[in-house]
Amino acid sequence: MAEGEALEIVAGGTRSALGRPVDAPHRLDMSGLSGVLSYEPEELVLTVRPGTPLAEVEALLASRKQHLAFEPPCIDGLREKDVGTGQGTIGGVVATGFSGPRRPKAGAVRDHVLGIAAVSGRGETFVGGGKVVKNVTGYDIPKLMTGSHGTLAVFTEITLKVLPAPEETRTLLIEGMSSSQAVRAMTEVLQTAADASGACHLPQDLVLEGKPDDVSVTAFRLEGVRPSVEFRLARLHDLLAAAGPQRMLEGEASVAFWRGVRDVTPLSGDANRTLWRLSVPPAQGAEVLERIEKRIPRSRAMLDWGGGLIWLEPAAAADVSSSLACEEKIRGAIQEGHAMLVRAPADVRRTVNVFHPQPPALAALSNRVDLQFDPKLVLNPGRMYSGI
Amino acid sequence: MLMPEPDPVILSRRADLVARLREVVPDGVIEDEESRRAYEQDALTAYRQMPMLVVLPSSTKEVAAVLRICNSLGVKVVPRGAGTSLSGGALPLADGVVVGLARLSKILDIDYDNRTVTCQPGVTNLAISRAVDARGFYYAPDPSSQIACTIGGNIAENSGGVHCLKYGLTTNNVLGIELVTMSGDVLRIGGKHFDAEGYDLLGVLTGSEGLLGIVTEVTVRILPKPETARALLVGFASNEDAGATVAAIIGAGIIPAGMEMMDKPAIHAAEAFVKVGYPLDVEALLIVELDGPAAEVDYLCGKVTALAQSHGAVSCRMSTSEPERLAFWAGRKAAFPAVGRISPDYLCMDGTIPRRALPAVLSRLRELEHEFGLRVANVFHAGDGNLHPLILFDSNQPGELERAEGFGAAILRLCVEVGGVLTGEHGVGVEKRDLMSEQFSESDLAHQQRLKCAFDPSGLLNPGKVFPVLHRCAELGRVHVHQGKLAFPDIPRF
Distance between CA B99 and CA B53 in Å, rounded? Predict the structure, then answer.
């Protein structure tokens, strides 16, 4: 290929339709750069090649009763036709930086990326961070790379902090709350030492395994050693006694429920709708949603992160003009936080701001950061913002 | 310590600069020598330098105006919080302006519903926890200097503390900042929501040691206080047994709130100082703290005790009251001053190692003691592998400081050799600056410095810290990068 020509970075392809479409004459397929380089459970450290399938990593960790605490989601419909192997990879997880329901308690992807080796857009190899769990030597380059959607560098090695998987998991479901009642209840629970590792709300029109039909559920997940989970569950049961009918999910049922929440399964059905992801102050989740519902009636949405994460499917066609109108209404409803267009046809992602627009000074800084790592814009050009 | 050469032109324009700064911070420009002296060093007391000037702005607007002036005149700036840096991060420059953030000391907002506190950078770490204590909350990172160190300084250094194994470092607990860049732009990154949009500039700012911008507002997350905390005090006949116990605890899926280890010299120094009943006949002591609901703490204390006993513990005590728990910690928390009592001076090192390397590293340290003719006491954040060897010396003895520095460098090289890093929580600053090329190649450092160029293209913000060689941003663009490491140690760098 000619010097200076742009590359689209892919591996599994399961996130290739995430972000703005990349116009590049070449595709760099990282799926061959695969394999576990070292895993030391007692050190809580795992080093892998970026093309290693996520499923392989999760199975390896599970064999030693450990896990990736940030619960990386696998959202349907984010694979462009025939791109990649179809198996999500660690490189894709880190590059896109999405975290699951445990994020408020356990931290985001970026909190678990200890070190990277990579090739920058200059074609130079470099490392950042380290391979130990505590390190402040130099700038935290691994955080910069996490969620940079392959626009700064291509990973060749990723070191992750891994943690013991909880011994026990139980979920308490409260039925019939409205979204504003649910956010109030979640806020109250998260202010106690109940130490919930998940707090979400699914309205009645959304379907998920473990959730009764025709009724909304607000779910709280408790994890840890059995005596602790039992004690906290009893406490939670009392605290929420007046909130509505309660049900309990144990073991695999609880795990499956949160897998569904993590992967946004209730909103994965309709390919003719766009999917948005909003991050707002948790206690404002219901208000933001109400404002959006006023502007775009009959939209479907679920709340995670105690109200701080909104997955939204606006009731509008997935075409350019409807999506532009939705964008304005959605972003206009957010006072603090941001919104990302996660799932939409390519022409929509080309026109609508997929990532939340930044104020000019911050946008200029982001641009300067990009140009330092990738001065000729050869890596996933335009994936995040025009010119980045 | 070699610092960038003072610029005579800048020094000759000092009066002009004072006048310009007084226009924007009328009552906060410190000119006279006596008052400037208070700023000539931070907690890394081996190095001192009188700053050209000190400015104490009291608002974001004033910080921005000060930086705009310094940027336009080409004047270097050294940001400063409480001056508790252990790596010389706030060491002044002879031709530089120290920007002290002490006046920005207000808590602006406490939001229990979103579980956040928003405050100015000069608020102390402990003041945040105190402000929310009555409602049963706290701010988790707890560096030992928490009574004095500021949240702004914590962000600059990405400070840790004994509880960061379970609750994370500063970077894992900050949600948003307001930042002023060297050119005077005011940026807001993140807020009360999780995960800012775009590049993780918040992640990069945290731990950037004052080289990328000055933080003028901070939003941190607060947590409900655990209902119970209990500590175990476990003695071992060897460091190996203690190390194996730590690995076994983590291997069993237990992440304690804190897990600290002390070696024999540290145990003796601490016990002589605070008299809390540490066993003196053991080679290593572990303090393991578990927190949470009582049911959980009881259960885990039982498990940890059993693991310790099956790995050769020779003594084991569990705290039965809050005063007793605090007494267990008192010796560990007083380890530095305790060592200060038995030695006129000490250097505190801060490398992190993979925990499995601990026995090998400790026995190598014994050999180095003979080589350098100096003694070492070790305290160790055992859970996360962060080792603090305290090198005892007497600066009144000619050559001892230099020997201690040489010893320290040898220890940090050893940390890197076994797969670890130069600094776990104290920062690079000036102290470990010249060792950076032990851990990073020229290309690694060039990529880090290019990040700095995106924030501060003229290199005026805290130069002489972190990076062993100052490059102009233009020349970094062209520099021929190869895999060879910089020659170390002693070539002139500035």
Answer: 9
Distance (Å, rounded) from C-alpha B374 to C-alpha B376? 7
**Which of A116, A135, A143 to mutate to probe the B interface, most B CBs <10 Å?**
A135
Q: Is the pLDDT of residue A367 over 50?
A: yes
Q: How confident is the model at residue B221 (pLDDT cuts 50, 70, 90)?
A: very high
CATH architecture of B107-224: 2-Layer Sandwich (3.30)
In terms of DSSP bridges, do strands A153-161 and A163-164 run parallel, antiparallel, or are they unpaired?
A: unpaired
What is the SS3 assignment for A9? strand
What is the CATH code for A265-351? 3.30.70
CATH number of A7-164: 3.30.465.10
Is pLDDT of B488 > 70?
no
What is the structure's pLDDT at B474?
Answer: 79
Three-state DSSP class for residue B98: strand
Chain B residues with CB-CB distance to A375 below 8 A: 477
pLDDT (0 to 100) of residue B485 = 40
Predicted model pTM: 0.96
A280 CB near a chain B CB, below 8 Å?
yes
CB contact under 8 A, A280 and B193: yes
Instruction: Assign domain B8-100 one CATH number from 3.60.21.10, 3.30.43.10, 1.10.540.10, 2.40.10.10.
Output: 3.30.43.10
Q: What is the pLDDT of residue B109?
A: 98
CA of B467: which chain A residue's CA is closest? A138
Contact A140 B453 (CB under 8 A): no
| Residue B204: per-residue pLDDT | 98
Give the residue range(s) of CATH 3.30.43.10 domains in chain B: 8-100
pLDDT value at B482 more than 60: no
Name the residue facing B204 among A144, A305, A359 (closest C-beta).
Answer: A144
CB pair distance less than 8 Å for A361 and B185? yes
Rounded Cα distance between A74 and A15, Å, is: 9
Cα distance between residue A63 and residue B155, in whole Å: 37
pLDDT over threshold 60, residue A86: yes
State whether CATH 2.60.40.1920 applies to domain B228-335: no
Per residue in B192-217, pLDDT (tens digit) is 999 999 999 999 999 999 999 999 99
Residues 67-126 of chain A with CB under 8 A from chain B are 97, 99, 103-104, 107-108, 110-111, 120, 124-126
- Please state the rounded mean pLDDT for residues A212-227: 95
From A196's Cα to the closest Cα of chain B, the distance in A is 11
B343-433 is classed in which CATH architecture? 2-Layer Sandwich (3.30)
Mean pLDDT, chain B, whole residue set: 93
Q: Is A136 on the interface with B (CB under 8 A)?
A: yes
Which CATH number, 3.30.1300.10, 3.40.50.2300, 3.30.70.3450, 1.10.10.10, labels domain A168-262? 3.30.70.3450
Q: What is the 3-state secondary structure (H, E, C) of B281-318?
A: CCCEEEEEEEEECHHHHHHHHHHHHHHHHHCCEEEEEE
**Cβ-Cβ contacts under 8 Å, A163 against chain B:** 255
Cβ separation A141–B447 shorter than 8 A: yes
Q: Whole-angstrom Cα distance, residue A307 to residue A284?
A: 7
Long-range contacts of B103-112 (CB under 8 A, 24+ apart): B103/B28, B103/B56, B103/B57, B103/B58, B104/B57, B104/B58, B104/B59, B104/B60, B104/B63, B104/B152, B104/B216, B105/B150, B107/B131, B108/B217, B111/A281, B111/A283, B111/B192, B112/A191, B112/B137
Evaluate if residue B493 carries a pLDDT over 80: no
What pLDDT does residue A2 have? Answer: 64
Instruction: Specify the amino acid at residue B225.
Output: K
CB contact under 8 A, B250 and A137: no
Tokens at A104, concatenated: 């408020």
The residue-averaged pLDDT of A262-269 equals: 90
